[in-house]
Write a structure and sequence with these properties.
The chain is an alpha/beta fold and about 280 residues long. The chain contains seven helices and 13 strands. The structure holds iron/sulfur cluster. Iron/sulfur cluster binds next to loops.
Amino acid sequence: MRRGRGQSGMDTILPEAERFGLNAGGVVARRTGTRVWLYSNFDCNLQCDYCCVRSSPRAPRRALGLKRIRQIAAEAAELPVSEIFITGGEPFLLPDLTEIVDSCAVAAPVTVLTNGMLFSGRRLGVLRAMAGLRVTLQISLDSPTPALHDAHRGAGSWARAMAGIETARAEGFRVRIAASVATDAQEEDFTRFLDETGVAADDRVIRRIARRGAATEGVAICRLELAPEVTITADGVYWHPVGAEDEDMLVTREELPLAGVLAAVREAVEKQQCGTVKTFKCA
Ligand code: SF4
């Protein structure tokens, strides 16, 4: 079934089955600007070998900052923004993450992407302070057992991610589990694990590793065929979170005002004359 292009040029339903994390099946391409991504920072406690933005403990922070995020959130509340995603880097490295999430949750439901490894000490307090806000935690877990996850993310990271999932659930948060996989077999293995552990369909994301950033292998992601998901960083606005430091994905260097950002992305969509779009499931 194919639905014609709407005014945004992006209302296309594609017929193929979901494959390789490039979701081309039965999905309406999200209207540009309803989903907004904020790269809160780029530094991370991990250095995963496929990180699409090359985050690491040595990466410069490049924080959007609370002041800018408050401005974006205030505008988002007046615009048709229905989802806000906060990602990095590792957002829980930021001491003011609670305030950041609080300001965004006023505008729309928020999802924070995290490796789940920092829910202790002061940062457990940061997590607890988010209780009651409209927030979901999307925690990365790549495999049912430690070997594969740790091979990409570092020794001991699987056990700490599992502990983080348990902590978040015990604190009453909705948790979505997100896996990056390289093969059909890995995807099937992880799907079986999620089925056996009772993870609901809405609380799981499995996508292929993208050949971006630090990754030397994975699916090629091309802006020309990728549905845009407005992505705001300290360095500018990008077409999609999976290419949030790549020149080919850059839309504009102006992060504010948000209305101008959305207009710039829509203009880029029109210029690009997207007819066939795929979605890459970062969340
Ligand atoms: S993939 Fe996520 S956890 Fe890994 S280095 Fe990148 S931001 Fe950090």
